[in-house]
Amino acid sequence: MPMRSIISQFIRHPSALSVVPFGNGLIHSTFRVEEQGEARYILQKMNTMVFKKPLDIAENLDKLSLFLNAKHAEVFFPIPEKTLSGEPYAIENGEYYR
What we know:
The structure is a single chain. Helices cover 23% and strands 27% of the residues. The chain has helices at 3-7, 54-71; strands at 17-21, 29-35, 38-45, 90-92, 95-97. The strands form 2 sheets. A 3-stranded antiparallel beta sheet has the order 1-2-3, with no helix packed on it. It has a two-stranded antiparallel ribbon with strand order 4-5.
């Protein structure tokens, strides 16, 4: 799995980072991205067998975030980071990562 290539779509200088599996997700493959042994980010590989239209998922999350920020700002709603180029996913070999 070309993790360095994927991570470089989110982080400018990923050379000091390592990637380790995180948990046993039932739907997505999840990884902990570490810097000097400390967790820095969570990276998910989307299961496109379950979620056939990942871009629709990203659009729905954006809409939900906008609604909550406008109507219920007190609600903490984490959303995935965009890539450095502003895309909702890094796409590598037809696989979607967020």
